[in-house]
Amino acid sequence: MAANIDVLFEPANLGNLQLPNRIVMAPMTRSFSPGNAPGEDVAAYYRRRAEGGVGLILSEGVSPNMITATGTRNVPNIVSDEAKAGWKKVITEVKAAGGMMGLQLWHEGPYRNPSKTAHAEIPSWSASGVKVPGKQLWAPMTDAEIEIATEEFVSGAVTTKALGFDCVEFHGAHSYLIDSFFWDQTNLRGDQWGGDWVGRTRFACEIIRRTRAQVGPDFPLIIRLSQWKQQDFSVNTAATPDEMLEWLSPLAEAGIDIFHCSQRRFWEPAFSGSDLNFAGWAKKLTGKPSISVGSVGLSGEFTAAYAGEISEPASLDDLVKRMEAEEFDLIAVGRALLQDPLWARKIREGRDNELAAFSKDALTTLS
Ligand SMILES: Cc1cc2nc3c(=O)[nH]c(=O)nc-3n(C[C@H](O)[C@H](O)[C@H](O)COP(=O)(O)O)c2cc1C
Predict the structure, then answer these.
(1) Count of structural domains, the chain
(2) Mutate to test the pocket of ligand 1, among 302, 361, 363 (most ligand atoms within 8 A of CB)
(3) From ligand 1's centre to the CA of 334, what distance in Å?
(4) Is the C-beta atom of 76 inside 6 A of ligand 1?
(5) Is the pLDDT of residue 129 over 50?
(6) Tens digits of residue pLDDT in 273-325
(7) What is the CATH number of the domain that holds 299?
(8) Is 306 one of the catalytic residues?
(9) Which structural domain, as residue segments, surrounds residue 84?
(10) Strand pairing report for 56-62 and 23-25
(11) Among candidates 286, 269, 274, which has minimal Cα distance to 223?
């Protein structure tokens, strides 16, 4: 018999964030914003997910500047007047449908390919100019560049709040700019921005602390983290629970409210000797609420989807078991919600026979 999915639809009272249920739409880059400003079609796309009963929508990654933050075509920013107006339209539509939404701030760092941008002469930013461990492509960021990047993140978060979003998420995962500081294979700095965990978390903490000072105590700040790296799915930022504590506790002290712990498969344990996944450990170690993610409701994981793998609908039993045990507080759902804006409602109403397999077509449409 299928597990009772009611736990997914209990309200979540997470300090400064109150949600109607536990389902979060995962941040997903869509590249449907010509001129880097989201249009009516993007607003309608998010509104459909709010109408479908998602508890909290997280936006696609949004650039905090117009030059170094992205090399990906048609990715929206939060800097130009057109982009700000577009995001205002998005949040207005989502609110009109009774939804809640946060914006994800994403600086690609070493994953920006300068040659694919209008500023090919400007090197990409990262902790040490290292994209693949052992291979230095650019100069390490200067102190002045770190200061600019910090202020751009803060300014993006302040704008997010001013536009009426319910929270902001800093993308600190998947090898991008902030993560390039966390991981000791891409942060080789000997100054205050590198070295031990205090040094490697300093950039993120500076962003969080300054944001907190500007947005006040009530505006929820989320950080997305991953143990895995784009360069290598098998590596871990933190090798042990003790290291994870050294990684996460400075971020919590700086003002993070919720940890969003990215995994490709949510059921995989973070460390041997315990079933707890990354979000489970983050909650246990910091006492902060956490979000898990990874292949919810689908048979295959997301990086294979880009290569064309089709995922079939899969059981939610293990997810329900973990949520009933309060291992983590919220569950983010990516591809299932790309495929079907009504996924949450269909799950809730037991309409499992209406759930479709995930196909690559959903990556290239904005339905
Ligand atoms: C099309 C697509 C775009 C994505 N873009 C982002 C992004 O902008 N920021 C981010 O943190 N993760 C991004 N991800 C990862 C998702 O947020 C999520 O962690 C991943 O898809 C696993 O969830 P799923 O198995 O439910 O799809 C993306 C995933 C997909 C499929």
Answers:
(1) 1
(2) 302
(3) 6
(4) no
(5) yes
(6) 999 999 999 999 999 999 999 999 999 999 998 888 889 999 999 999 999 99
(7) 3.20.20.70
(8) no
(9) 5-363
(10) parallel
(11) 286
